[in-house]
Fold each of these.
Amino acid sequence: MQYIEEKVESKSADYARALKSLQEELEAVNYYQQRFVTATDSELKEIVGHNRDEEIEHACMLVEWLRRNMAGWDERLRTYLFTSAPLTEVESSGDGHGGQGKQEGAGDLVIRALR
Ligand SMILES: [Fe+2]
């Protein structure tokens, strides 16, 4: 594992492991996606598509570990994930769950007035 600092505390070392693993999973998603779109044999296409989806699952597991363990991830993920506003505007639109009016839990229920 390559660190940018000489001495890395153990928790920071785990962050580095998770971040590097996430990088590797995303790289694998990219490779499999390219093979998926270019494969000419239908069975091979199915296999690499399956493999791509497995790598996406691995990447998601690492993102969730980072959310649970490394400062900064939870708030940003609550702001940017599962929103419908344009991504460049979501932080200020209030459509995200982060920032002001932050809500707990991923499956927040929003009750609006009936018309
Ligand atoms: Fe993987």
Amino acid sequence: MYSGLSYCIVGSGFSGSVLAERIASVLNKKVLVVEKRSHIGGNSFSDIDQATGIEIHKYGSHIFHTSNTTVWDYICKFGEFSNYQHKVMALFKQRIYQMPINLKTINDFFNKNLSPNEAIDFLNKEISSCGITNPKNLEEKAISSVGLNLYNAFIKGYTRKQWGKDPASLSADIISRLPVRFNYNANYFNDPYQGIPLDGYGQLFDRLLSHRNIELRLNTSYEEMAQYIPPDCMIIYTGMIDRLFDYKFGALEWRSLNFEWETKNLSDYQGTSVVNYSDESVPFTRIHEFKHYHPERTESFHAPQTVISREYPIAWQQGAEAFYPVNDTYNNERFNKYLYKAKRKSNLIVTGRLGLYKYWDMDTAIENALKLFERLKKSEIP
Ligand SMILES: Cc1cc2nc3c(=O)[nH]c(=O)nc-3n(C[C@H](O)[C@H](O)[C@H](O)COP(=O)(O)OP(=O)(O)OC[C@H]3O[C@@H](n4cnc5c(N)ncnc54)[C@H](O)[C@@H]3O)c2cc1C
């Protein structure tokens, strides 16, 4: 039994690590962090590939971006960020386009030379010719954002691969309205703060968790530790909520991913960090080329080899990594049953993207952890 332990945090992604850091340093309480993987950092983890010296993102490209000054000021205390600006290309029928759809994508795709205002008129005609005013599913929502032609090229095949279902059978709630830019801005994100940790996410997480009040247990699942946790210890659980309750109401549906890694004897494979493959006939959705995240690391950037990873969406099964929640009505209702059960336990808080069954970017995970900490602090310090 861990006597004197006030908090046990399950999971060392941004949700768990930020809470551990705040509780350890501000509340001066002992925290045990339990992580089932062999490394900290959750899905945001990155590390150096020993063979090439290139920093790789183990669970696919992770670009930090936020508009939240509190989050940015907080995370910058644990690492310096580069000024990397993310740009994504999409390959469709052997031609390369800029993503998200912008004026260059429209002009290249329709073989035109439209000005911004002409492109607005042109796309409005494309959209109105589809006649969708009240989109009832993901396909209709996407078509009512970009028109049928751009939908067929860049959304339809990609979405079918990503979700493993026909877009017409998916809930419109799964996507927000698709962004279209009527200028040549090729930046993927609009946020004012953006970058990649200069010495990698792994180092940033090391610093988050380096406080003397934090004890870290890697390769350990909560389920095998539970019997050693004192009954008055507060459990903060950032794992899957349905697993916590032994899938009592059935498993929540997720999409999982398979990453196929390859080291190429080439200095540069695709000229950029991410290329989307929107043709349905290509089985993967993206290729990541990691050296492009660190052009400032001149040695690995100019090395004669490069590391790429092909991303294949796959159906999730119990035991696999859960990446994208399928937030349709059926699953959300099932999730609410688990949440109700969790809320009735006074020494349990469920949070994080896995716990709350939400797609969160890293900044949202940090923002939620900081807000949760403020609530905990109020109850700890009257
Ligand atoms: C492919 C992909 C790309 C992404 N790219 C970006 C991006 O570019 N920018 C961005 O801002 N966000 C991105 N994200 C989102 C980002 O990964 C999440 O915001 C972030 O990981 C959330 O942190 P978290 O701590 O809530 O969850 P996680 O990072 O998933 O951490 C949860 C941790 O809990 C551990 N755990 C779970 N159950 C147990 C258990 N029972 N016992 C012990 N440990 C357990 C897990 O092993 C994991 O380490 C991406 C996500 C995916 C899937």
